Each structure stands twice: as structure tokens, then as C-alpha cells.
Fold this sequence. Notes:
CATH architecture of the domain at 72-313: Alpha-Beta Barrel
Radius of gyration: 22 Å
Number of helices: 21
CATH superfamily of the domain at 72-313: Aldolase class I
CATH class of the domain at 72-313: Alpha Beta
Oligomer: single chain
Structural class: alpha/beta
Largest sheet: 14 strands, mixed
CATH topology of the domain at 72-313: TIM Barrel
Amino acid sequence: MYVIKKSDLKRGLPKETLSICPVCRKVIPATIYEEDGKIWYKKTCPEHGEFKDIYYGDAEVWKWMEKWGMILDGVGTEYPKIINGYTDHHYSFTALANLDLTNRCNLRCPICFANANAAGYVYEPDFDTVVKMMKFLREERPVPTPAIQFAGGEPTIYPRFFDVIRKAKELGFPQIQVATNGILIANDPTFAQRMADAGMNTVYLQFDGFKESTYITARGVNLLPQKMKAIENLRNVKPKPLATVLVPVVVKGVNDDEVGKIMEYALDNLDVIRGISYQPVSLAGRIPQEDRFKMRYTTGDLIRDLHEQTDFIEKTDFFPIPVSAIFSEIASQIFKKPEPSFTTHPACGSATYIFRDYEKNKNIPITRFIDVPGLIEELVPMVFNEEFEKKGKLRNALTLYKILKKHYDANYAPTGFKLKEILGVFEQGTKESLGKFHWNTLFVGAMHFQDEYNLDIQRIQRCVIHYVTPDLKLISFCAYNSGPVFRTAVEKKFSISLEEYRKRHGNVVGVEG
């Protein structure tokens, strides 16, 4: 096996795991159980008492995710060791690396992980250090890190932002991304074009909905006009629009009533918007239980709300992210080398594809014309028997075509859809073949990043999104952000004071006195 192995995760509820105390951050036992149609999380610290929270807001959706997500784990890494902070073993390698270019920002969002003015120091690795960090990612084995996302703070205000993009392209990252609030893209009509010219592939645009009140609550200012202008400027990039993924941070009682509207907006703008990455809010800091329950929003809540707010989504249209690793393993066996793989925990995220049929004016989830459960059940035994490694490419293509056709219903497929577009991904294994499949298609994903209250160490052990640090370490995303243990320590170690930064660079954005 190249990238996956059978999972040792336990199915069913209740189940035991390990978590941390939100106060002292010591590792303590936790119980996951069902109650009142939800999945709950309970843990007790001998010193600081009991903590209870919602693990998954819809028990029906959770059982569906657990059914399809307990099949496999990742094979881990040969080099380097992934740090998760709580155990020595890590099951997955890096599918996406975050590289924080700066903790400066041109906003001061109440829900943000990082802010230089609030922290009292500036974390901003110089260009040579950033290059060293990127080279380190490309040295990872068994698979060089395939995707890099520049983050922050606000990465677009980094002094050598375009040089960093060009260097990432030179180093061979197949997917180069930026997570941005879009202000510079909106205010400078040339910015998006310059990003594309430098080698940027995808813009992850912070997009919390359409209400002024949402932006004022989450970001401190109404940013909707800038979001719309940013999308227009991304659309105007030549020779084709710069692929954009909307990233709504969803907070219960704030913008959960607009998740369906966001999806419909994306489907109406498929020429530039290629996906949505919903992010149920991660609740950082000391928050009383009653307030947490008011704000807590999970992937289960999201999928239920999408079903209720649209006329084309069913709860079973979504599958846990690790299902995709089955297809990564098939590609690995066909091409005789490890391929990037999302071997996450089933609670980490879920996804689906929605096709826009312009002729019929319909939105069609992939599950309407492909029997995904039947396809998975047929493919899994073949994957673990390594049947795709034993055959040549032509025989594998024929085998896959027969299996796909068996689980395909052309009567419900989008107008003009060709089954060979899916097959082409496995025949050719190129970005171009994957691009054909994505045409007129919206990827809809949800990734619920953990906080100190709902942290599950079994999830962290299977994390595939990692931070790279200036001292060349890879740290699991939720470990890095679920409290000050990693992020604060790393940033302080490689930071300078606000005063020193101002002396060197002046009173620039993000360090205003």
C-alpha cells in the first residue's frame, strides 16, 4: 500500500478518546456520546472540573460520516516527523502546508488567530527563511508537499509577496494558494493579475455572507463591497479567471442562516468561484459554557442547514474527506508511486461536488448520478488487495470504466457530462485532466478546526494540514492553533517587538502606533 492502511479507529458510540483541559492544557480522557439528536463531548480535569461541548450537531449526519470514514488511515511520513504535540505517532503526511508570512494584518478581526497589534510583536520571516521553509516542504517523504497556502495575518501585505509566489512555482508546488481577506485584491485592480502572472493557482477568499451585521460582528467592519470588488477583479484575470474558493467562517446565530445563499451565489458564478470551504467557528480563549453553546456550530449543523436552505442538497450528498484517499490510493497503485492523500479523521471535514446544468437550469450533486456508496464498497476490497498495482494502465482503465459505468446513471447526469472525464484523472494523472472534471463543478467542503474545548487527539493524529515553522518543523493545524502552546511559542521565538519593527520599516500596515 502506498498511502493508506486499515484504520484502528473504533466505530459506534459511546467511545473514549483523549483531549486537553482548556485551562491547564494537560492531557485528559474524554467521552464522545449521543444525546438529544446530537453528538456530545465530555471531559473532566481533576483540577479544573468538567467541560461539556457539542462534538457534532446532527447525530444522523455523524453516523453517516463515521460509516464511510472509518475505513483507513494514512501511512505516516518517512521524513520529517510530524509534530502533533500530544503523541509520538502521526498517521498522515502533509496534503496542504500553511506558511504564515506575517502576523501583521490590515484588519483587526475579533475571531482571528493572529494579530500583531494584539500580540505586541511582529512575526514575519524574511524572504530567505521563507525559501528555506518551502524547500523543506518539498523534501517531505513519501510525498513532497503538493499544496502550499500562504497565510497570516494577511499574507498579501508581506513585503516580497510576489517573489514568494514565484519561488513556490520554481520549487514545483503543484498547487499554490493564498488565504486572504481580499482587501488588496479589491483596492488594486492589478493585484489579482500580478498574482496569477507570478504563479498563484487558487485564492481562498474570506467570505462570511451578505449581511452587513455579519461582517461587523466577525470582522469589525462591513467588508461586503470589498468582497464583491475582489471577486470581480479575480474574474477579470487573463487569460482566464483566477480560481477562487469562498471561505465562510460560520457562527451560530450570526451567519448560519446564509450558508445556502452562499452556495447558490457560488453556483451562479462558476466562471471564477471553483469551491466553498465552510469553516464552522473555532472558539478560542476562555468562553463560558452557555456562551459556547450559543455560538457553537459544527459540520453536522452545516449539512443539515444546507439541506434545509436549498432545494437540491440531501444530507447523504456529503461524504467524509478520507473517502477521497481511496481514489488517491488507486492513483498511487496505477502510477506506482505515492500520491497526495487526505487521510483525515471523519470528524475533520466532509465534501461533495455539485454540477451546474445550464441547459436544465439545475444544480445536481454528484450523488444523483453516481452511486457513491456502491462505488466505494466495490473499490475498497480491490484497493486493499492491491489489484490496481498488478495490472497495466490500459487494463486498469478498462476495469475502472466498467466499475464506474455500473454505478453511473446517465438519466440524472448533467447535460454534456462524460464519464471519461472522471476516468481521465486516473488515466493521465494530470492537472489538466482534473480540471476537465471540475469544469462547471463546485467543490463544497467543510473543515471544522478544533479549539481547546472540543479537541480530540485522535483527530490531531490524522491531520493532513500542517504548519511549517522557521526552524523547519511540521506541526498539525489544530495543535498549532488550539491554544498558545505552539503558535505563541513559535511566533515569539522568531519575532521582534512592534517598536523594533517600526524602527526598521516605519509605521506600516498592521503595526500602526
